[in-house]
Amino acid sequence: MKQPRTMPAEAAEALAIQALTYLAGDEGRLERFLAITGVGVDQIRDAAGEPGFLAGVLEYLASDEQLAAAFAVESKCGVTDIARAHHALGGEPWEREIP
Question: How high is the pLDDT of residue 92?
Answer without folding.
Answer: 66
